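--- STAGE predict ---
source: upstream dedup step, 1 unique chain passed
mode: sequence only
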Amino acid sequence: MFLILKYLRRSVGAFSRFSSNISATKMKVLNVAEKNDAAKTLAGFMSSNIKRREGFSKFNKIYEFEYMLFGQKCDMIMTSVSGHLLGLEFVGSYRHWRSCNPLSLFDAPVVKQCIPGYEDIKRTLEREIRKCSVLIIWTDCDREGESIGFEVIEVCKAVKPSIKIYRAKFSEITSQSVKRALQNLAQPDKRTNDAVVVRQELDLRIGAAFTRFQTLRLRQVFPQNLSDSLVSYGSCQFPTLGFVVERYKAIESFIPESFWKIKVIHEKNDLCVDFSWKRVRLFDQLACQCFYDLCIENPVATVVSVNSKPKSRWRPLPLDTVELEKVGSRKLKINAKEIMRIAEKLYTQGFISYPRTETNIFPKEINLSNLIGMQTADPAWGEFAGRVLQDGPNPRNGTKSDKAHPPIHPIKYTSGLSGAEQKVYEFVVRRFLACCSKDAQGQETIVEINIADELFVANGLMITARNYLDVYPYDKWSAKEIHVYEVGEQFRPNIEMADGTTSPPKLLTEADLIALMEKHGIGTDATHADHIETIKSRLYVGLENEKFFVPGHLGMGLVEGYDSMGFPMSKPNLRAELEADLVKICEGRKNPEIVLKEQILKYKEVFEVALQQAAKIDEALAIYLQEQPCQVETSGIVIADLPSVVYKCPACGSDMVLRTKRDGSGKFISCMSYPQCKTAVWFPSIVEAVDVSNETCAQCGPNYHKLKFKFRRGALPSYSVPEDTLCIGGCDRDLLEILSINIANVRPSASSSLGNTQSSAINSSASSVNSARGPSSNNTLTDNALFPASDNIHLPGNARNPPQNARGRGRGGQDRGQRSIKDIFQRPGTFSETSVSNARANANPDSFIDQTSDATVMCNCNQAAIQLTVRKDGPNKGRPFYKCGNQSQCNFFQWADSASSASSPPQNSTEWNRRQTGAFSSDSGLGRSANTSSFGQTQFHRNPSHGMASDRFNSVPSNDSFSGTSSSSGTSGSVGPSSVNSTFNSFGRFAMQSNNDTSTPFNESADNAIVCSCNENALLLTVRKEGPNKGRQFYKCGRSTCNFFQWAEESTNNVQENLQNSFSTHNNVNAWQPQHQTGSVPGAANSYDNDVRCRCGGPGKRLMVQKEGPNKGRPFYTCPKSVDKCQFFMWADEGSSDSASGSSSNWGRNNRGGRGGSSSSNSSDGKKKRKCGNCHEEGHTKRSCPNN
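--- STAGE serialize ---
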C-alpha cells in the first residue's frame, strides 16, 4: 500500500511538472485595436473570463484572456491605441516658423515620430510586445486604420524584429465577425499604408508652407485685423472654401430678369387643376400679351390627349457614409461631424456596422433576414419589419464598393438609446428596412389641352401602394388629384397672364457642400466633415440662419487673391488628381514615390509664383478688411533674423545656413536638420565677419552661395585684400585649408548620393560635425578627400597648364574667371611666401622674435604634449622629452632640451612657432595661411621655389621616383633628373608617367622634390631665429606626420652622389598599393622587391641611406605605404630580416616620433651587438625573443 501511494505521488508530481511546462510554453499574442472601447468589446466577444489591468496610459486598458488560436490555447493580450500613434514632422530648425524660408519646406527632411501625448501608449506597446511572439492588428479596415496598424507594427518591430504579424479583417464588431476574422487572418496591406503616407506628407508640406507664408506675411501687412490670426491653408479645405465662395459670388453677380407666362385653371366640383403652358415663359411682355389676347378671343379648351401610366417611387439605396452625412444634415438637423461622432460610438457599442464606407451594395454573405428579424420587436417599425420578412428581403443595390466594408446597417436591436444617438440609430434602422422593402407604386395621368393653338399640360397622381414609405418618413410622395378627362372634351377654363422674375441660386447647405466635395473628389467620406469644420473654425466661412454657408471677409480675400494670380487654387482640380492617384496607389497601379514627387513639384511651382505675386493677395484682402496694407517686401515674406542658406548639407540634403554663436563671438554654418544631423563648419578667429552673398559659385553650382569675408587686421599680409567674396564649396582648396574646413562638411563624397529624405527619418550617423573650431591641422584636407577621382589635378612642370575646359579645383577655377584665395593674397606675378615673410619682417623687424620661453609644447594632435624622462640605460638616460598627450595618436616626439636650441630648429614647438612667425603665429587663429605652412601648431616660412601650401596636393608622389636616406630625424630624398607628371585615375590613385624633361636637380623649373619619411614632398624652409643657423635652409615634413628634418646643403650633396649610384627597376606593385607606371627613370633609387615582404604583406620598398656616416650609400628595405606604415626595416645586403629587425626598432620608433633615441647611436658603433626589439637584450632577435 505504501508503495502504491508513493508511486501515485510521483505520478502526480510528474503530471504537475508537465502541466507547468505546457503552461510556460504557451503562446502569447498581442492584439491591438484602434480605440479602447473597441478593444473592450472585441475582448468580450472572444472570452467571458477577462482580466483587466492598467497600462502606462490611463485611457488605454489591457485585457487578458485565453483563446484557442493556431490550434492551441494562447494567452491573449488585448490593448489599444487612440487613433494615429505616429506622425510626420519636420526635423531640426524646420519645425520653427521663423527659422527657415517656407519654400524650403517642400524639400525639407521629415521624420515619423510619436505624437505628443501618446508616449505612454507607445511605452505600453513596447513593454507588452517583449513577451509576445505574435501581433494581431484589429484597427478599422479602411485607409487610415491600415496606416494606424502599420504604425503599431513599426513600434513593435523596433523592439522585437522577429515578431509575427497578422491583420484581422472585419466590418462589424459582433461575435460572429470576430471569430470569422480570427479564422481568416491576413497580412497588412502595405499599398494602402503607402497611400496614406503620401497623403500625410503632402498635407504636411503643402499646409505648412502656405500656412506659414500666409500667416507671417498677412500679420505684417494687416496688423489691425490679422495680428493674432492663423491664416491656414490646406489642399482640401481651400477647394471646400472655393465652393462656398463660388456660390456666394454667383448669387452676388446674379441679375434678375422679368418674365411673363399664361396660366390656365380649370375648377370643377371644388377641385382646381392647374395647366402649365408648354412655352413655360417668355421674357418679352409684348409677345406674351399677343398670345394671351389670342387665347382670350377663343377661350374654349379642347382635350387633345389623356395618358395614364403606372409610376414608381424607388426605395433608397443602402446607406454609405456620404449619404449618412447628407441626409442626416437635412432631415435630422445634425451637422456632419456630430453625426459621424455618434455613428462611431454606436459602432464601438456593437449597434451598427462600421460607419466609414463607400459601399452601397450588400454582399451575398450577409444574412439580411436575421438582421431584419431583430427589429420586429420594436413598436414603431416592428410590424413593417415583419411584412418585409414575409415578402423576403429584396435590397436595392447601388454601384459602389470599396471592397472593405458593407453598407451601414444595424447589427442588433436596442431600445435604450436617447437623444441624438436614438435619432441616428433610428435613421439607420429605417433606412435599412426601407432599402430591403419594395418601391412605392402609383398611377400617373397626363392631360393635354389646346386653346387657340397654344398647348397646356396638367399632371395627376394616384398612389396605389405606399410600401417603403410606411417606414421611411424622410421621403415624401404626395398624391395629386385630377379630373377625369376624355379626348375631344371641351370646357371653358380661367385664363390669366402672370409675371415674375428669375431668382438666384440658393446658398449652400452642409448637405449641398458634401455633395459637391464628393462629386469633385475633394477629401474622402471620412474627412468631409473635418474639412468643413476647419474652414468654419478659421472664420473663412460662417452660417446664415444656422443653415446656409456664407464666406467671410478673409475667405473671400484669399480666394480672389489667388485667383488673380491665374492659379485655380480654390478649384478642385489639383486635389482631385491627388485623390485619384491615391486610389491607384492602393490598387498597385502607381508608384507612391512618383506620385509624391509629382504632387510636390506642382504645388512648389504654385508657391514660388505666389511668393512673387504676394501683393495681389494684399490688394484683394484690403478691400474686404477695409484696412490699408502696410508696405513690406514686394516678393514673398519678411522674417526677421532668418538664417541665410549657403549650400545643401552633404550628409542629409537639408539647407546649411549661416548662424551666430550664442555668445555672439562669431558665426558658423550648421545644418537645418540639427540635432538629427550635426554637420557644421566653424570659422577660425581670423574671420572677423562673414555674410552670405547673393552671388552663387559658377564652378560649384547654383546651390553654393559665396560668402563675404572680412579677415582680422594683421592676420594676413599687409598688402593682401582684407575683404572679399569667396566660395567654400570645395573649388578653392587654399581657402578651405586656411579656414581648416573639412571637405566632407561642404561637399558630398563621390560615392554618396543625397537623394531626398522627405518621407523618411534622417540617419544621424551619416552626419558629421567639423571639429575645426580654431586653428588646427587635424582637419586639413587630403588629396582624395578634396578631389573626386574624376577631377583633373593641376600639376607642376609641364602639367601646370591644363586645358581650358578642364575642371581644376586646385586654382579655384581661374580659367573660368573665378578668383581664388591665392589670387587675393598675392601681388601680381609669381607668388612667393619668402618674399611675404621678408616684407612682413622688414615692416616690423621685432615681430618675429618672442623672448617668452614658457610656452606649452603642443603635439601634432593640437594637444598639450606630456613630458617624460628616459629610464632606459644608455647615453640618453635621464634626458627629458615630450610625447603626444592624446594616447600617442600622432607619434609626436621631441627632446625637452631641444626646445631652446638655436643650432637646429625643433620639430614641433609653440615657442619656436611664435619666435619664427611673429604675427603669423598660431595665436592669430590662422590654421593654414597662404603665406605660411602649419605643422600641428608650428609654422615656417617657405622658399619661393616651392609655392603655395597647397602645392603638395599637386606634387608628384615620390613612392617610385625618389631615393631616401635615413637620419636621426627622419628620411630625406632627392629626385632624379627626370620629372614626373601625375594625374588621378578613375580609382583616385596616382598613375606615373615619365617625360623627356632633363632639367637638373633643384632647378626651379623642374619637378624635383625632397621626400620626407611619409613619402611626401618635403617643404624647404628658412631659419629666422637669431643664431648661427639664421638664414640657413632646411627641409621638413609637409604634413607634420613624421619628424623629418634635413639641411638643404646636405641634400644637394646627397643628390649628386645618388645620381652616380642610381639604379632603376621595373618590378610590379601589388594591387593594394597605389597604381604606378614605373619607367626607367635615371636617378631613381626607389624600387620594390616582391621577394622581400613588409609586415603589411606588401613588397618591400628599397631605399638608400643618404646621411653621412658608416652606412651612407647602403641600401635597405622599408614599408612602401605613404601612411599607416608598419615598422618594417631590413638591410638589403643581409640575407634575412631576422638579423636586422632588432636594430630597426629604434629607427622605426624615432622615425615615427617614438620614445627611442637617435638611430645613429646604434648604427655608428660597429662593435656593438644588435639588440632584441622586444626586451632590448643582446644575443637574439625580435622573432626569436623568449618573451614572445
